[in-house]
Write a structure and sequence with these properties.
Belongs to the thymidylate kinase family. It catalyses: dTMP + ATP = dTDP + ADP. This protein has a single domain, classed as P-loop containing nucleotide triphosphate hydrolases (Rossmann fold). Helix 3 packs antiparallel against helix 4, helix 3 runs parallel beside helix 5 and helix 4 packs antiparallel against helix 5. It is globular and about 50 Å long. 56% of the residues lie in helices and 12% in strands. The structure holds thymidine-5'-diphosphate. Thymidine-5'-diphosphate binds next to helix 4.
């Protein structure tokens, strides 16, 4: 039997994922639910090194399949070193981005194909799919405007992609919502943050109750 729940957050850049994750952590703390929160590459040395290559602004020559393979490699290391041990110890794991990011960004927006990208990721994740994925939906214009306002956040290579690309990423997430209706739940992230969190809380509580009653 599974020892705990694996919950991922997805969404276009600037959708408020980091703030929502902090709110989830506070909520779980308050309710005495053992958890960890992480993000790829999550401070895992090997995964960080791989990620540095992907996000380096110098690497404009990077082939899109190379990018997808590197994301999968970084994901694998973070999963093996961080996520699986935490789940085995009975922690609920909240992860900022996982395989769906690769499916939406590399598979759909970069047009490698979602099935192809899923195939290399299956090798990387060995069946560790999330129990619940919260997709924070927002129009790319609004998301990017939020990023521009937040001066502390470093703008990376992918942030600089054109709006078209971000619109395609969003379409990619919509495809995923159709493909995995039970696992992925869409949340309107254009609302006020406390209202967004109400939706998040409801979905997480439902999942926890379902898990405990199994
Ligand atoms: P990240 O560092 O998680 O930034 P944020 O979530 O704050 O936007 O991700 C950096 C970029 O990498 C982001 O634009 C999404 C992209 N990305 C992919 O293209 N594929 C992937 O598999 C992942 C995990 C991220």
């Amino acid at each position: 039997m599974k020892k705990s729940l694996f919950i991922t957050l997805e969404g276009p850049d600037g959708s408020g994922k980091s703030t929502i994750i902090k709110m989830i952590e506070e909520y779980l703390d308050k309710n005495g639910i053992k958890h960890i929160s992480t993000r790829e590459p999550g401070g895992i040395d090997i995964a960080e090194q791989v990620r540095e290559v992907i996000l380096n602004k110098k690497n404009t020559a990077m082939d899109k399949r190379t990018e997808a393979l590197l994301y999968a490699a970084s994901r694998r290391q973070h999963l093996a070193e961080r996520v699986i041990p935490a789940l085995e110890q009975g922690n609920l794991v909240i992860c900022d981005r996982f395989v769906d990011s690769s499916l939406a960004y590399q598979g759909y927006a970069r047009e490698i194909g979602m099935e192809e990208v899923m195939r290399i990721n299956e090798f990387a994740i060995e069946g560790y799919m999330p129990d619940l994925t919260l997709y924070l939906d927002i129009e790319p214009q609004i998301g990017l405007a939020r990023i521009a306002k937040n001066k502390e956040r470093e703008v990376n290579r992918l942030d600089l992609e054109k709006l078209d690309f971000h619109n395609k990423v969003r379409e990619g997430y919509f495809k995923l919502l159709e493909a995995y209706p039970n696992r992925i739940k869409k949340i309107d992230a254009s609302k006020e943050i406390n209202l967004v969190f109400e939706d998040v809380k409801r979905l997480i509580n439902y999942k926890i109750t379902e898990f405990l009653n199994k």
